[in-house]
Amino acid sequence: MGRQDFIDQTLAGLREKGLYNTIRTIESANEAWVTIDGKRLLNLCSNNYLGFANDERLRNAAKAAIDKYGVGPGAVRSIAGTQDIHLELERRIAEFKGTEAALSVQSGLCTNLAVIPLLMGKEDVLFTDELNHASIIDGVRLTKAQRVIFPHRDMAALEQKLEEHKDIPKKLIITDGVFSMDGDLAPLPAMVELAETYDAMVMVDDAHGEGVLGRSGRGIVDHFDLHGRVDIETGTMSKAFGVMGGYIAGSARLVEYLRQRARPFLFSSASTPADVAACIAAIDILEESDEPVRKLWENGKYFKTKLQELGFDTGVSETPITPVMLGEADTAWAFSKRLFEEDVFATAIAFPTVPRGKARIRAMLSAAHTREDLDLAIEKFALVGRELGVI
Ligand SMILES: Cc1ncc(COP(=O)(O)O)c(C=O)c1O
To answer: pTM (2 decimals)?
Structure first.
């Protein structure tokens, strides 16, 4: 047996179980419509909530930054120096979020790897929602702290766990803000109350709240008016902001600490100037107008209501994320394949991204979709749903 044969066996196992993911190749920009295999398809897959990924204002900002700063940051910021544009982005994020300070890192995934191990040592205890994103799970795995996983959104269970661990001085509660596979929200007000009662820190990953919730997309803390009561916000510029990069927002001392010690900051080069400039342009747009956010919600509401009227189960979403629950992975893959044939690009999501038996098509609406786009998608969902006996 060859040294790498186990890889073939594992991949064959995935194929057998219907869990093998064939990744499509997109030949165009990421927009409401994309080109795949030479054909135009309506795009319901991307997290490009506000349609910024190919927005002319962001593209122009990126081009101007390349002309001024070049294409690469040179090295890690702590060694090569930080470019002023990175500092400007951090100031703008902090202002937008309403926090004292912010630190930008390369991605949303990196934020959770940066901050969680820095806050939690082996004497400490952290409490994490069972459905938290993989990057939170990985951040937690990098610590030696005691881990308590509480049932999804269950604040009574969290309270009981906090009570059991009340004698441990340093405690951290971690949650996604919007759970991206279901579109439901963390019960942040109740969580903050519990944290204050038990003297725990609270950290929220706002990756899918950014540009979606709160005034002009300021996120979940703004949505629930909890400014000053959440210790750490992590987030990404890769979804609603349409670009790439992550940030950690919080107190000035937290950000200072991260600058000195966070490993993704110290051991991985900074985001490119073009990315950073495009992120700043996205914030400019949102600070000028909440129009893109309003359009996104309008589209989400329309699409979800129409699918429900057709008899689809759209789960528990409270946001424009629209999961169409299909049960087994096979059905979800077949649904996605038929939609593809009908010019609609909507990927099936199955185990291990969601629990077994809860496979779905997750339709991601965008402010860039027109009413005609949505009507077309609804027509195709109805067609395929009837064909497969889902409705
Ligand atoms: C909750 C959450 N956190 C972090 C990330 C990672 O963000 P990025 O793609 O910027 O690494 C994602 C994206 O999938 C996410 O949904």
So the answer is: 0.96
